[in-house]
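Open question from group meeting: does this chain pack into something compact, or does most of it stay loose? Before anyone orders reagents, we agreed to write out a predicted structure and look at it together. Recording both the input and the output here so the notebook holds the full record.
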Amino acid sequence: MKKTLFTNWHAMRWIRLAIGLFFIQQAFQYQLFLLGFVAAFFLFQSIFNTGCHLNGCQVPSYKTDKNE
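Structure tokens returned:
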């Protein structure tokens, strides 16, 4: 868990963090709680390094042999 949080900070992860922080600021300023959920989504993606990236959203393809 600690390794996930503190390693592999690439540009897209920083962009997600910036978007999340901006949206959370806007949610508090304009009292838009739905925007707070969007901000939480982006912050979750940036902190835990999840999201669509390099086959991240693909279903893994397992080859099965039809003869078995």
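Observations to bring back to the group:
Residues 17 and 46 are 5 Å apart (CA to CA).
The mean pLDDT is 82.
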